[in-house]
Design a protein that fits this description.
- This protein is about 35% helix and about 25% strand.
- It is built from 7 helices and 12 strands.
- Strand 1, helix 1 and strand 2 (about 40-45) form a beta-alpha-beta unit.
- The longest helix is centred in the middle third of the chain and has 18 residues, at about 155-170.
- The chain is globular.
- It starts with a strand and ends with a strand.
- The relative contact order is 0.17.
Length: about 260
Amino acid sequence: MRDLTYFISDLHLGAGYISDPRAHERLVVSFLRSIAPDCKRLFLLGDILDYWWEYRDVVPRGFTRFFGQLAEMADSGCEIVWLKGNHDIWIFDYLPSEIGLKVHDGILVRELDGHRFLMEHGDGVGNLPWTFRRLRALFRCRPAQRLFAAIHPRWTVGFAHAWSSHSRKSGGYVSSPKVADGVIEWAAAYNERLPEARRVEFFLFGHLHSVVDRSLADGSRVLVIGDWISNFSYAVWDGSSLSLKRYDLASGESE
């Protein structure tokens, strides 16, 4: 019976700093196959791919098994929603039309089984450095996107992966504990602006590559659901409770 909702983030499939990208993809696909029988909804909270750019008539190579598994789940009736992250922001119409999933950019508020959820990749909330805010705006700028699309992929793909690897090694602002505190403060402020009947019960984010589960003063919860680089973590909603879990690499089972 399909009655569970899953949330997963920051797979970074295809990243240059992953020693065996094919094994990494197979691991993710194995997890998706394990949850498919009871998965009613699957929310992909961004940075699922380390880099993706859709040209008008061609798309990047790779991710065949992953996309195939998503298509199989969508065909069987599972709702799949992909929230864009800062690495996979350039998803346009190919994946929605080919796989049958929905793509969303920015904050998404949904009622699930009578409970109010807010989801975002996490790069758009909290105390963001001005340099990062400018980059986010540039990546979403249509004229800038058209200029980037005019560059041959032999240059853009290598540049994107090199930039990603450098960012990962340096850690950037994401590695600071203050960033997680800023996200939690943002969630609390969000609810304070709303009447009690419209407040969010569960805030879910990725982006920080860490696992956080914090209760707010109003009783709501903020979850940062980790990644599939070091945590292999995800969240699951059963209709009445939300829990964080990890996928055991040795047994191929959740814990």
